[in-house]
Every structure is written in C-alpha cells, then in structure tokens.
Specification:
transferase; ARM_PUB; 65% helix; mainly alpha; EC 2.3.2.27; 3 strands; Herpes Virus-1; 3-stranded antiparallel sheet; ubl conjugation pathway; 388 residues
Length: 388
C-alpha cells in the first residue's frame, strides 16, 4: 500500500479498490463496498462477499448513509482534498492551515477551525502526514502560539486547549528540541499560569509535555530540570493529584517524569509530594496509578527530607504497611518493602509504628506468595531488622 492510499482514513476506503468511497453500500454480511465495485463483482456471477467469502443468502445492497455522512464531514474539514492526488492535497491543506495560524489578520474563529483540521489530520499516523508536519515545522509554531504573546490565557482558553491537544498528538512524531523554548522566562511563566488556570484538558496536555521533556535525556534535559525547579509549577502538579480526579493520573506521571532527574527531587519533597502520594494511595477510588506513585516515593527516599516527611506523616508508615501484601499489585508490595526497609533502618519511631500496624504478619504472608526473589530477600532483611 503506497503513501497516497494511506492519506485516506482506512474506514473510508473500499476494500476492493482501496479508493475513497463514492457511494458506499452494505451487503447482508455487514461488509461495505463502493456501489460500482460490488455491482461489478456481482455481475461477474460471484455470489460471495469479497472480504469474508461468505455465501450471500440475500444479494441486495443497502446504501450506507452513515458512512457517506462521515466522509462528507471529513471532506468538509479538508476541502482541498483531491482523491486523485491525496499527497498534494494534504501538503496544500497543511500549508494553508499554517498560514492561517501565522496570520495576525486571521480571526480567532478561523484559527480555531484550522486547529480542528490539524487535529483530524494528526490522527492519521501515516508516514506521509508525519513528514508533512515535520517539514512544515508545526510543533514550533503551535508552541509559540500557546506560550508566546499572541494568545491571552484569560480570553482564549478554547484556542489554547485545542492547540495543546494538537501539540500532544505531534510530540511522538519527531525531535523534541522545539520544547526548549519553554525555558524562556515569559513562556515558562505562561506554562505555570496555564497549569493554574487551565481546564482539565489543558492540564492533561501540559502533563504530557512534561513527560515528553523527561523522555529525551539529551535534547530536553535542561528543560526538565527547569520545570522541576519551578516551585510554583511543582506545587500545582502535586496538589492536582488529590484535588482533581480527572487529572490525577496524568499528574502522577508528570511527577514521575520530573523525579527522573536527581536535581528535581528536593523540590518535589518541598512541594508536598510525599504527603499527597500517601493521600492518593489511601484513597480507594484512585489507586490505578498507585504503582507509579509508590515508585516515586521509592526514588525520593534518597533524601533525608523525604524520609522525615514520610515518618512525620500521620498515616505514612501505616499506609506503607497496608501496601506490603497486595495479591493484585506486586509492584506496590515491592516498593513498599523497599521504602519501609529504608525508613525503619533509620527511625526507631518508624519501626514501632510498622510493628503496631501488623507488618510482621504481612511480611510472612508476602514470603509465601509468588513475589520476586529480590522482594523476598528484602522482606527477610526487614523482618530481621524489626525482630531485633
């Protein structure tokens, strides 16, 4: 299948010709074909469905109005699309959209419409579309529009939300070096402001940007460090974990990303990461990201301040004890044992609280489970420490 065929969404292509549907019709088998193609197939005496090869107990065809409507909507989003030359149509369309976004004379509504079209096109992850987005430098443009001076966060939140959604889709396509523009003072301030005042969609997209910044050790390491040392931003991310259920999972991922740099860990502790993660794990409704959250705590245990924050938390040690033996979540059990071994080795108070919370029984149960040999070894070390 060549790249020009890939420019058409898969569901919009006739399985016989692989071209864009002109008049989609459906057989009794549920398969849809272009009318001219399936009529030719049937006229040749074929009494089976071309895709499933099932025998047709009813050779009648029914117009697929729903699919036809979807194709019409898609064509309206990209009016320059020419089925005869989809590659040229895509280039022309994207170039036009870019000019629209760059123009100071273009209205906000026109820019919003352009972003909607970009979002649709970026959903088609064919190699040709990817090449177009990269060659036309869409990522730097969108980043400048969101974090630059052309948009007011207070007045144009719909624009920012859509632009960030497009940025999120484009991040996996190429180099992340353009993200480094966020290090600039005014753009960094806008990043923080958007996290404070933005919608859930905006906060989710910003968390994804933070994740991406940490995933490229060479290109964006300085950016990850800058974000992690921005106390206002770290505080906002940490607070979202328990204040906003819809964004909490993305906030946990963003914290984990920032935690990948040793230099960021102290600011996470100061921002209340230990306290909020303990609250998150305790909440029965929000444990889906508990393994990642526990891994963050495990990484932070290299800091004296993090250990003290955990031991001083009213339910810190007890929460860890409750995580020691979890049949459905071995990763949490492994992290809990590791963290308890660390704090119990330094704080007598932690040892006393762990024993009072029933950690000995849980450790014995853990040793009889199917956990890893490494976890069992650490569990035995913790038992020896507590019994002494």
């Amino acid at each position: 299948m060549n790249e020009s065929q890939n420019a058409i969404p898969h569901l919009f292509r006739c399985p016989i010709s692989l071209d864009l549907f002109e008049d989609p019709v459906t057989l009794c088998t549920g398969q849809t074909y272009d009318r001219s193609n399936i009529e030719k197939w049937l006229a040749q005496g074929n009494l089976t469905c071309p895709v499933t090869m099932q025998k047709l107990h009813d050779p009648s065809i029914v117009p697929n109005h729903t699919l036809r409507h979807l194709i019409d909507q898609w064509l309206q989003l990209d009016p320059q699309f020419d089925p005869a030359n989809p590659e040229a149509s895509t280039i022309e369309s994207l170039a036009s959209l870019k000019l629209n976004l760059e123009s100071y004379e273009s209205s906000l509504e026109n820019k919003l419409q352009a972003l909607r079209k970009i979002s649709v096109l970026s959903d088609e992850y064919c190699s040709f579309n990817k090449s177009c987005f990269l060659q036309l430098d869409f990522l730097p443009l969108l980043l400048e529009l969101v974090f630059g001076t052309q948009v007011s966060p207070e007045n144009d939140m719909n624009f920012i939300e859509l632009a960030l959604c497009c940025i999120k889709k484009l991040l996996p396509l190429g180099s992340l070096e353009p993200l480094n523009m966020i290090k600039d003072g005014s753009k960094l301030a806008t990043f923080v402001l958007l996290f404070e005042k933005g919608t859930n969609s905006v906060k989710t997209s910003l968390c994804r940007v933070i994740e991406s910044a940490s995933s490229s050790s060479s290109e964006t390491e300085d950016l990850c460090s800058t974000l992690g040392k921005t106390n206002e931003l770290v505080h906002e991310i940490v607070q979202v974990v328990n204040q906003n259920y819809e964004v909490s999972g993305d906030a946990i991922k963003a914290m984990s990303a920032l935690c990948s740099l040793q230099s960021n860990r102290e600011s996470l502790v100061r921002g209340g990461a230990i306290e909020e993660i303990m609250r998150y794990i305790t909440s029965s409704e929000r444990r889906n990201m508990a393994p990642v959250a526990m891994r963050i705590v495990e990484k932070l245990m290299g800091l004296r301040s993090a250990k003290e924050a955990l031991v001083n938390h009213p339910n810190g040690v007890q929460t860890l004890v409750n995580m020691v033996f979890r049949v459905s979540d071995q990763k949490c059990s492994e992290s809990a044992v590791e963290v308890l071994l660390t704090v119990c080795g330094e704080f007598e108070r932690a040892r006393e609280e762990a024993i009072e919370s029933g950690v000995l029984t849980r450790l014995l149960l853990l040793l009889q489970s199917q956990c890893s040999n490494t976890t069992k070894s650490k569990a035995r070390m913790l038992l020896k420490l507590l019994r002494s």
